[in-house]
Amino acid sequence: MGKDLIPSGSVEPINLRDALEERYLAYALSTIMHRALPDARDGLKPVHRRILHGMRLLRLDPRAAFKKSAKIVGDVMGNFHPHGDQAIYDALARLAQDFAVRYPLIEGQGNFGNVDGDNPAAMRYTEARLTEVARLLLDGIDENAVDFRPTYDDADTEPVVLPGAFPNLLANGASGIAVGMATNIPPHNAAELCDAALHLIKSPNARIETLIGFIPGPDLPTGGIIVEDPANIVEAYRTGRGGFRLRARWAVEDQPRGAYVVVISEIPYQVPKARLIEKIAELMEAKRLPLVADIRDESAEDIRIVIEPRSRTIDATLLMESLFKLTDLESRVSLNLNVLSGGRVPRVIGLGEALNEWLAHRREVLIRRSEHRLAAIQHRIEVLDGYLVAFLNIDEVIRIIRNEDEPKPVLMSAFSLSDVQAEAILNMRLRSLRKLEEVEIKGEHVKLTKEGRGIRALLKSENKQWASVGEQIRAVRKAFGPDTALGKRRTTFAEAPAADIAEAMLEATVEREPITVVVSEKGWIRALKGKLADTKGLTFKAGDGLKFAFAAETTDRIVVASTGGKFYTLAAGGLPGGRGHGEPIRVLVDMDAADDTVAVFVHDPERALLIVSTDGRGFIVREVETLANTRKGKQVMTVGGGQEMRLCVAAAGDTIAILGENRKLLLFRREQVPAMARGKGVRLQRYKDGGVSDVRVFASADGLTWQDSSGRSFNRTMKEMKDWLGERAQAGRLPPQGFPRSNRFGTPPMG
After folding, report:
1. In this structure, is residue 495 part of a structural domain?
2. What distance in Å separates the CA atoms of residue 637 and residue 644, rounded to the nearest whole number?
3. Taking a C-beta distance cutoff of 8 angstroms, is the pair 208, 352 a contact?
4. Which of 111, 298, 539, 699 has its CA 20 to 30 A from that of 56?
5. CA distance 327 to 246
6. Which residues are catalytic, by number?
7. 540 and 468 in one domain?
């Protein structure tokens, strides 16, 4: 029956892939352009722009009475933003949160949430109005400063972008996730942005290092201390991608009898205070913070988190370093300056380009407002000329109006008036006639004529336009300068403790004990107490066996090298105990399922490593370059196309011996292999078939040593090995008589 209801010929076949691609592309473009990314000119997403525009129409100016948030949300949803009311209210509420937005665009009355992470009250309970910052963003919108477009139902119009007299993109920042891209811009100090913008007016191509002199880094609503390397900050602002290490602000308060407590007064940006304290309490319960005795929240309007040390003899800096390492008292604020450039093209831009886009927009707004004002002046001057004619011929004008059925064309003909002038005279109230004085008319005429000449001169001179833009920016800087309550910088800068000092501090939190690290063939790791002399008694799961075993201490860092070219770092004190079979390394780090362990060893900051891929390419890397700060590890060797990292050995010596699966041996000088931090490396040995089997770095004075299957050692001097000494990337030759059939040097695992 349903089939009969479909008109004949109305069904057209379509390729499913084409249909999905078309619809997904439309969805992606809609998300990017109309939801997730801010406009580089006013720093707003569509929902925020519509909220501000809707509140302007409701006349919710900074000095107006508050109105219910539900009223605002209803108007915005009905007129401009046909989406969920809760989504609109969430966006509105965030613009009013002084702990989330550096320069709030909305002034709220009622419960708009707090730094603990609590949600705002329902929209029926809260009220709102615009702030002075929002007024600056909207200033000039009635003077043809920006384009308008039809709303979703064509019943009204909405601004494409706001005039944006305030540097909102960088001052308040933005975050959002689109399709295939995201943005994350931390807040900055408005006065510093204005200073940098004024410099760019004079030098549009200013170097990023110069701009950093004005804008040293983000200025976050919740304060804190940035401890990022200055070189990293420069690179982040140059490329538009990077991040900043941010720490809580703390101080020591002395207590009776020589005791002390640590008081935290500022926490990192976007870290909920309640969750932070809960996490610290969990770590204390798990005995991962042995230096902390107690934590309590004494916050009222200001943040005050009190931490008591386990003992008065514990160094406060050491205590805080342990907290920074394990909790969100230190976080990372990322920078991804992905914006809609010109309101149309999504791309990542640097700091200078972001400010230049705002400046170009301000100049365009100035030109459009000036042209609008000039047109209004010309219209007014034309009307004044008509009024002057009417004043000088008042009796005749009254006679024509009284006696003529159509006075307008008669007036135009009698006094050579334009349509505008005649209409203005006819629309005058009678009581205005006695107030029409020639001096007042001429005075206003002269004043407007002078203003018009100034505007024409402005429109003809780019230098005057930039000078005017500069004056506007100086006014903004004065309103939000460092001497104002809102404009004073909240986030400061400091140097983080040197890596070796910080490491030494953290080692003090773990009791130093000898252990034996055991790694199985299938990648299970465990730590047995003490130094194990014999590994024969170790038990493993069925089908598994010993791969590595080496002595370490609980304060050591353990480095894991994988076939994917990544290096991972583990704390020896945090390894699973030796009562069972341990845990898979993949559980402790984010190692790809297809990867396996190449080497596991105790970190030695003074050591260098030689790493080699299956096709015989390799390079030397300093071991400190392999340390990873996260579970994801650090990519050191670039592998692909079926290749993987095969070997990782200590590079202690001046000569390299490499052995192929084709049983060809080659010796060459270590100096022929470059030292790199990351890459594919260079060809170490050439193979016609197969790949690398083993490699060894040794001192030529000691000669080349290998072990056979029974553990016996053999040594050959460089004189004896001269036939195998060549240049890097050669094929080599068959090893000397007596070399092990295993095709390995028998080098013990690193550790």
Report:
1. no
2. 9
3. yes
4. 111
5. 12
6. 125
7. no
Question: How many residues appear in the chain?
Answer: 751
Tokens of residue 544, six digits? 């598994």
Give the DSSP per-residue string, 333-367: EEEE-EEEETTTEEEE--HHHHHHHHHHHHHHHHH
Host domain of residue 630: 503-724
470 and 525 belong to one structural domain: no
Which conformational region is residue 154 in: left (phi greater than 0), alpha (psi within -120 to 50 degrees), or beta?
A: left
* Strand-pair partners of 130: 106
Instruction: Indicate if 45 and 163 belong to the same structural domain.
Output: yes
CA distances from 197 to 202, 205, 368, 502 (A): 9, 11, 21, 38
Q: What is the rounded average pLDDT of the residues 525-531?
A: 89
Beta bridge partners of 128: 67, 108
- What pLDDT, in 10s, does the model give residues 448-493? 999 999 999 999 999 999 999 999 999 999 999 999 999 999 999 9
Q: Which residues of 234-267 are buried (b: 16+ CB within 10 A; e: fewer)?
A: bebbbebbbbbbbbbbbeeeeeeeeeebbbbebb
**Residues 164 and 285 both lie in one domain:** no
In a domain, 190, yes or no: no
Is residue 501 very low, low, confident or very high in pLDDT (cuts 50, 70, 90)?
Answer: low
In the chain, the number of structural domains is: 4
Domain with 382 in it: what CATH number? 1.10.268.10
The residue type found at 136 is L
Tell me what percent of the chain is helix, strand and coil, each rounded to the nearest 5: 35, 25, 40
Distance of alpha carbon 192 from alpha carbon 468, whole angstroms = 19
Residue 65 lies in a domain: yes
Max CA separation in the chain (angstroms): 132
